[in-house]
Amino acid sequence: MRFSKLFGKTLRQAPAEADSISHQLLVRAGMVDQIATGVYSYLPSGWRTLRKIERIVRQEMDRAGGQELSMPSLQPVELWDLSGRHEAFGKTLFTFKDRKEHTLVLGPTHEEVVTELVHRHLQSYKELPLLLYQIQNKFRDEPRPRGGLLRVREFIMKDLYSFDADLAGLDRSYKKMIEAYNNIYRRCGLPAVMVEADSGAIGGKDSHEFMLIAETGEDEIIRCHNCGYTANAEKAEVRKTPSAAEEPLPIQEISTPGVTSIADLARLLNMPESKTLKAVMYMADGNHVLSVIRGDMDVNEVKLKNMLKCADLRMATDEDLKGTGIVAGYASPVGLKGVKVVADESIMMGNNFVAGANRRDTHLKNVNYPRDFQIDIMGDIARAKAGHECPRCGHVFLTSRGIEVGHVFKLGTFLSEKLGAYFLDENGEQRPCIMGCYGIGLGRLLAAAVEQNHDEKGIIWPLPIAPHQVYLCPLFLDNTEVASEVERVYNEMVKQGIEVLYDDRVESAGIKFNDADLLGLPIRVTVSPRTLKSKSAEFKLRAKGESELVPLGEIANRVKQEIAAAADT
RNA sequence: CGGGGCGUAGCGCAGUCUGGUUAGCGCGCCACGUUCGGGACGUGGAGGCCGGUGGUUCGAAUCCACUCGCCCCGACCA
User: Fold this and answer.
1) Is A168 inside any structural domain?
2) How far is the CA of A511 from the C1' of B16 (A)?
3) pLDDT at site A507
4) Taking a C-beta distance cutoff of 8 angstroms, is the pair A360, A330 a contact?
5) Please, what sign has the CA dihedral across residues A315, A411, A209, A150?
6) Which nucleotide is nearest to A537 (CA to C1')?
7) Do A300 and A364 reside in the same domain of the chain?
8) What is the span of the domain harbouring residue A272?
9) CA A165, A196, A415: angle at the middle one, nearest 5?
């Protein structure tokens, strides 16, 4: 490819609306273009990278026994009513009416369609396990697209759906996919960390996410470096250590003017935060719910939501608090009536707590459960943090940030039952398929790759997914010797099947080198009067500082050697 | 949906508060010339419905109303 003919120019400055680093660099490198909020075109070099990722994904899906198919993006809304997910998805679902006033959905995912498909075509257990996948555009009217390609409304996704006869089969399919996913990320040069994840209200038992570690990631990952336990902070278990037990003392009011936070309270009373109780009011599907947890921990809203089995959960506003008897900053379950109370187990690990008094500027000392207040539900609603102890081995947790680049679920049978994906087993009995689903957002993976692999000059592509492998960079192209030698090198590389971007512009060294760094192609080969003095070209890796001179006759082989080395990892 | 910000040339911006010739600047683009191993320079050019609609006014990029779009924070994101 000749640079002068490549559609998609490099930009010195990123558009003002590009905020995330990957968005800025992908736009500046001429790889993507935004047409509306969360809607992007892939320009030729961006599309090349996307297709390289896609190819690796496809190969691994096929290798794991997947069969590729294509399913419609236009889906009848009835399918979504049947599965019950029309409501669950809510406004995220793009819907519209056709000319006959019939409502259609732009598919945000294809579980419904694939289950319907299986319903019609699957008959016997002998056809199981069945692994079907597609690589297609999906549509979600996200409340807030953001971060360039990281969260968009139209995106290319690989989704595989597994159908098994029994739970053991599902486990096998699930394991196979995890293996395939690890292969994919490794082959892309983007090693991802698998973490335990929340499966959401509709998910089944197990769920794992694959995270690309990056400073800018929006997910927090909990890691134990001792036993290897890793989980999304939303999901992570927490070991709660009991504080020393004391004789319960009589409850006592104390004056705490202006003290509305746990930190201030602990400081004022000169006691650890674990001696306090934290109470936070939420609205769950419109109903008041008071959460109570020991003061040294925070409420994990995902866990709380799962426990309440509610569709909508948000923190209560001052308006919501009116008439409940709760006073913001001094909230407490003590003496509270008519409000559902959910508590974390940690409130049983300790006693003589300081809690709010539901009165301004007042707290209560020596509050003990269950002596002083009652609760409706007890469970784990704590959010894991760095410094907490690992529930498996007791080692101290570390945290890092990551970008979710894959998600696998064990779905179970709720969809196959609703949509009728049954089969006949050995005994002639009708049973629902046990399903799993396994997704990778290709565009997000591409963006995450940039988010993770860049420097102040530009992108640093891992070789397997770089749009081109080589940036061929002649200097002083108006010099006839340079022109003829570089042309020869270019033709030789093309002949050898090397993917080379040939910068055939008559531009200064600075411009070319800066564009080379911005585009981030893994190998840069420079030909100039200087290198030609020793009948050589300069060979340099984007990821490394040093360069070497390689004789012109050997440069193509040197490049091939490098490519082969990257393919082995 | 709540809060904040922004729409002027392909990109980055000034001009708007305080209305008044032909709407500017840098980068990029085109032509010619001199340079050039880390974003050189000269000369000459092309490029604008000042997001849209309606109003106020002798006169609107500028004031008012409505509207559309984009970005950020939050809510949300099976």
Assistant:
1) yes
2) 37
3) 94
4) yes
5) negative
6) B37
7) yes
8) 252-379
9) 35
Cβ contacts of residue A338 below 8 Å, gap of 6+?
Answer: A324
Using C1' positions and the CA of A473, the closest nucleotide is B37
Residue whose token pair is 């409420």: A299
Query: Is position A230 within any domain?
Result: no
pLDDT band at A200 (very low <50, low <70, confident <90, very high): low
Residue nearest to nucleotide B73 (CA to C1'): A144
Domains in chain A, number: 3
Q: Is residue A271 classed exposed, middle or buried when 0-12, 13-18 and 19+ CB atoms within 10 A define those classes?
A: middle
Most confident of A158-162, A289-293, A359-363, A565-569: A158-162
Are A276 and A151 found together in one domain?
A: no
Question: Whose structure tokens read 């200097």?
Answer: A475
Residue A189 CB contacts under 8 Å (≥ 6 apart), including other chains:
A449, A462, A463, A464, A465, A566, A569
The CATH number of residue A184's host domain is 3.30.930.10
Tell me how far apart the alpha carbons of residues A501 and A2 are, in angstroms, rounded to a whole number: 6
Nearest nucleotide relative to A201: CA against C1': B78
Measured between alpha carbons, how far apart are the two ends of chain A, in Å? Answer: 27
State, as a whole number of angstroms, the distance between the CA of A79 and the C1' of B37: 63
Q: How far apart are CA A215 and CA A210, in angstroms?
A: 16
Residue A461 within a domain: no
- A145-177, pLDDT tens digit by residue? 988 899 999 999 999 999 999 999 999 999 999
Q: How far apart are CA A514 and CA A226, in angstroms?
A: 43
Q: What interface predicted TM-score (ipTM) does this complex get?
A: 0.94
Separation between the CA of A354 and the C1’ of B10 (whole angstroms):
63
